[in-house]
Specification:
mainly alpha; two-stranded parallel sheet; 2 strands
């Protein structure tokens, strides 16, 4: 038997020793984790073996996770791993699903949800997948009716909107439910459309655009969509999200809108159903700005995020004529202004942060054997990389002037300051040498980012020479 086979057998033996209540609890916790998006091959194996043991013992066990996962399966392409309050058109935060499921079973349709969920779980325990899928479809249809009644009764009533948010337990409850209604109502058409799309679209060029447009137009013309009371605008939005998910560069979705309008004029693009593509790209950019704010506060790297925002802004401005006044041009201007506001303070603070770390200190101010704090050095290096990224993307992020100034300050200080640091290292005594060395090591890291590896390598060799020269000079003095 292979080692994997032996591991599975040991797992089976262990699970057989568990009491029914413990098995039930373990199933529920693992399935809740999967519902929240915690994909893990090991968890799936444990669940599979748990279910096998449950069937063998004919043990009834509540299976809320399986029913919920099947219910939410059509929503998978529209889920995002972000905070629930982040606004993104046509998307739902994955973390909101558990609260929505609880609301459905508690307030929306308690008796029906309970009965159908139990039937679904029994079908799954019996390994009758076909019956389970039929029951899930029935649950979808009834949930759509109830959610429609709930949403249509709110309208523009802000108090009712807030009350719904409290009941459901998510900050964007009305938007989440509206998205769910659209996706679940269109689940069959969207599923068929998604299966026809390529797994990945590396370049969204004319041929790919025409092929996708043909598929969307064919789906819109289906009798089921025409007569099923489903809104075509919802289908266009959902279909375009499915396309965006397959694009290597999501901002390229704009091209389907300009192609449909046969123009880059915003007024003409806005008249087509494919205007939703522009709305989606702008919504994604706005969401990235919110994530940027969160990452900046947490002190995490944001270079890849800056590139994504830059590419989206540049794509919008290059693919469409946004020079004229329009809602889209105002929205993009607001996005760029917000990004600029978020970045300016961080950019301006970076040269000072680096100077505080590398400034020469008299020996009396250095604790014997001390070094620079590695956390501070890591943060400074991340800040230097951040300024470099902002410099690269400055035009679209509206930070040209402040980035140029900060980069010039860093360049000048590193060019002149490293000479002073080398002299200090050369004349250092045993007590302060570790600290001087840590300053030079930090400067080498910063120079690698600003000037490149070759410059940093020369500086490292100069530091070695400085240490050797200092040691040689001190020996005769001691003699």
């Amino acid at each position: 038997m292979t080692s994997d086979g032996q591991s599975i057998e040991r797992l089976r033996e262990y699970l057989r020793t568990l009491k029914p209540a413990a098995r039930s609890m373990l199933v529920q916790e693992l399935e809740r984790g999967l519902l929240r998006g915690g994909e893990n091959a090991g968890n799936e194996i444990v669940l599979q073996e748990l279910r096998r043991a449950i069937r063998a013992d004919a043990q009834p066990v509540p299976r809320i996770g399986d029913a919920a996962r099947l219910f939410f399966a059509p929503l998978e392409p529209f889920l995002i791993d972000a905070r629930a309050e982040h606004k993104r058109v046509g998307r739902i935060a994955r973390v909101s699903l558990e609260a929505i499921w609880s609301w459905i079973g508690r307030d929306l349709m308690a008796a029906e949800a309970k009965a159908l969920s139990e039937d679904i779980n029994r079908a799954l325990v019996a390994d009758d997948r076909t019956k389970a899928e039929q029951l899930v479809r029935a649950l979808h249809d009834r949930a759509i009716l109830r959610m429609n009644d709930t949403v249509s009764g709110i309208g523009s009533d802000e108090r009712a909107r807030r009350r719904l948010a409290v009941q459901v337990g998510t900050p964007r409850a009305l938007e989440d439910l509206s998205t769910m209604i659209a996706v679940l109502s269109l689940r069959e058409v969207l599923g068929d459309f998604a299966r026809r799309l390529p797994n990945q679209i590396r370049v969204f060029d004319r041929d790919e655009i025409d092929a996708v447009t043909k598929q969307i137009n064919a789906a819109v013309a289906q009798p089921a969509l025409e007569s099923g009371g489903m809104r075509k605008s919802d289908f266009f939005l959902c279909a375009l999200i499915l396309v965006m998910n397959r694009l290597a560069a999501p901002w390229q979705l704009i091209r389907i809108a300009t192609r449909a309008a046969e123009s880059d004029d915003t007024a003409r693009v806005a008249e087509t159903p494919y205007a939703a593509a522009v709305t989606l790209v702008l919504s994604e950019a706005e969401s990235m700005v919110g994530e940027l704010r969160s990452e900046l506060r947490a002190g995490r790297p944001i270079v890849s995020m800056l590139k994504a925002i830059h590419d989206a802004a540049r794509g919008l401005r290059s693919e469409m004529d946004l020079s004229v006044e329009s809602p889209w041009s105002r929205q993009l201007a607001a996005i760029r202004a917000e990004v600029s506001s978020l970045l300016k303070a961080e950019i301006e603070a970076t040269p000072g942060f680096v100077r505080r770390l590398l400034r020469p200190r008299p020996a009396k101010d250095i604790a014997p054997g001390s070094r620079l704090d590695s956390i501070d050095v890591n943060e400074a290096e991340m800040r230097v990389e951040f300024v470099g990224a902002c410099r690269q993307y400055a035009s679209e992020l509206a930070v040209n002037e402040v980035t140029t100034r900060a980069h010039s300050e860093l360049t000048l200080y590193l060019e002149t300051g490293t000479k002073v640091l080398l002299d200090s290292l050369r004349h250092a005594e045993d007590a302060d040498r570790p600290f001087r060395q840590s300053q030079v090591d930090a400067a080498i890291r910063f120079c690698r980012t600003v000037f490149g590896s070759e410059y940093a390598g020369l500086l490292a060799k100069a530091a070695e020479v400085a240490v050797q020269t200092g040691t040689t000079e001190r020996r005769p003095a001691r003699a």
